[in-house]
Amino acid sequence: MEIAIKLFQFILSISILVILHELGHFLPAKYFKTKVEKFYLFFDPWFSLAKKKIGETEYGIGWLPFGGYVKIAGMVDESMDTEQLKQPAQPWEFRAKPAWQRLIIMLGGVTVNFFLAWLIYSCLSLFNGETYTDLTKFNNGIGVTEAGKKMGFQNGDKIINIDGKPAERLENASINILLGDNVTVLRNGKEVTFPVNKDGVAEVLKQKEAKLYITPRFPMIIDSLATPASQASGLKKGDQIVAINGKQTPYFDEVSSSLSENKGKTVNIEVVRNGKPETITASVDKNGKLGVGVDQKALANVITDKKYSFGESIPRGFERSIESLTMQVKQFKIMFNSKIQGYKNVGGPIAIVKNMPVDRNANGEISINWAAFWGFTAMFSVWLAFLNLIPIPGLDGGHVLFTLYEMIVGKPVPQKVLENAQMIGVIFLLGLMLLIFGSDIFKIFAGKL
């Protein structure tokens, strides 16, 4: 049931994005009186699931859900149908249109993708507001994992800015730090700026800690006793752990670190109970856990709920679109960094489906988290816009590049060059697709997905 809901969300999101992207090409093509032969949701090699011809255009649904396309007459596209191009150009063909019209047609898809993301983010800000973990409320600073320490952080640091820009939201900051170069923190009352150690970034990605290597620092107050061993230890709900084996551990991250150092051992735990000190002997399991739940009230104190009026939601939607786009571009820095080797963590459609967000109620019943769904759709819309603008033949960016060349030089790129470039681009994209799918399948069999 869960995988069915996740798959439904993925297909619905992709369908919305593909249809609107292709409409971005279709509508200006029709406006400029260019013949559109096909309009397809998903690809249709060998056969289609459904099709109907209306006027001069065949509308259909393919069986391969990796995108979609519009086939515009007189254009070298991924279909590699060049027979028509051997004849003299007709006035209704793409190649017969002025360069500026062709440029508008090719940019239509990415333009729609960006404006769709802007619209979705504006609506989410207006109707749902934004809930985030506020770094400015981290009165005790941050707690970091060993990988976080390797990046250059210390427990108790208060993050001020990243690459010179103020850091306010943990959800954004934790990613921006991985993609950034320098971080400024308040450490022992002094501002300290240090370069982000890329070996630490590689370790964070390897450990899949992209959102966990930094946490708010809060006291370790026991909220529940989850195991028979913890119940028999003498620990009680409301106890605040302040030291382990004589070592001061006033914060959760220090308790967690100390327990990890004492896996499978018995330790003396100093707690404050009803304002008085107590010493308890307890066993640490092989995973470095006591089997206790932690009071989450301290975490609630660092959460900010921000609401937006209609007038505020529109510029905020634009800001969120730019933030998402910037983050997508920055990811290429770590993807091809020789130390970080971020390409090893790239996921394809299978990984995306597995990580689609769902809601689960107290009875374990699963439903769609629509706010998360639309947030994913907006992010993915920006991602598609960025990918399509990469100047690779086979993508919109390749066509845009050749058209801009024509507008600057004053003469079109030779037809044979276009055909060969398109062929190379299609082969490259198919190879990339196989590589990504192969990576997903390998991770499944290796138990990493």
From TrEMBL:
Pfam family, one: Peptidase_M50
Family statement drawn from the similarity comment of this UniProt entry: Belongs to the peptidase M50B family.
Transmembrane segments: 7-27, 103-127, 370-392, 423-446
NCBIfam families: RIP metalloprotease RseP (TIGR00054)
Main location: membrane
Alphabetic keyword roster: Hydrolase, Membrane, Metal-binding, Metalloprotease, Protease, Transmembrane, Transmembrane helix, Zinc
Residues of the PDZ domain: 227-275
EC numbers, comma separated: 3.4.24.-
Essential cofactor(s): Zn(2+)
Record protein name field: Zinc metalloprotease
